[in-house]
Amino acid sequence: MNFTKKAAVLLLLIVLAICAGAASVSAKAANEEDFEYNNQNRTITGYLGAGGVVEIPSHIDNLPIAYVDKNAFSGNSTVTELIIPGNIDVIDAGAFSNMSNLTRVQIKNGTKTIEDGAFSSCPSLAEIVIPQSVKKIGEGVFSDDTGLIRIYFLGTEAPAAMGEELFAGITDETKILIPESVSDKQFAQFEARLRNSGMAKSVTVEKGAPIIIAVTASDLTAEEEEKPREPIKAWVWIVVFVGFLALLTALVVYVMGLMGIIGIKNMQTGKNRKNSGKSKT
Description:
Layout: H1 2-30, E1 35-38, E2 43-47, E3 52-55, E4 59-60, E5 63-64, E6 67-68, E7 79-84, E8 90-91, E9 104-107, E10 113-114, E11 127-130, E12 136-137, E13 150-153, E14 161-162, E15 175-178, H2 184-195, E16 204-207, H3 234-280
Parallel strand pairs: 2-6, 3-7, 6-8, 7-9, 8-10, 9-11, 10-12, 11-13, 12-14, 13-15, 15-16
Antiparallel strand pairs: 1-2, 4-5
Helix pairs in contact: 1-3
């Protein structure tokens, strides 16, 4: 009995350890290992992943990431969407430039600076969300983004510093949307700042909450739209299957142990009855 219980408990502990290990390694494999970074500067310097929808990690090796380096993603052709966490203070010059298949960018609330040409020459880029925390946008950040349809500014005031030629090369179809909550005076000031940054008169500025990206009222942080995730890697399924087999084995051993105990008790009861009958005779 004691051996059976100990074996079952041991197998259950092994299963839990396997599952915990799989979860932690899976999270790291799906995120941290896709990025080159400098721990000392807390800077992401490159991308090694398979592309698709990419969420930049807020921490690597338990250290917060504060910067995306110059040209870190420049020239990438596999990334289609980017989600940038708010604890990244600075997006450096050209960080996401010349990305041929990038269609959408979501910057979370907290980022303060977008340097020169950070998202320039991305012909497929259609939408970008700029949170209220951004105080500086450098020169030519959106230059030659010929597919840009919507730019969402989530703050009620334009960034304090906006570089020249910010919108050079974008089409007349581009719309800039700012929050519904702004007053007419704020709207006029916001639009004037945008026009002074080289935006063509044909580009429209409108009030309106983002159509696709939900915005919370508390901090105007853009929340991620539901989208398909990357498929789970084969080795994760193998680990889960092995864990399931181990759990099943533990349950079988436990049940067999219980059946054995019941059988022993029944045999003991039979012997007792037999001995009792003999003693009466």
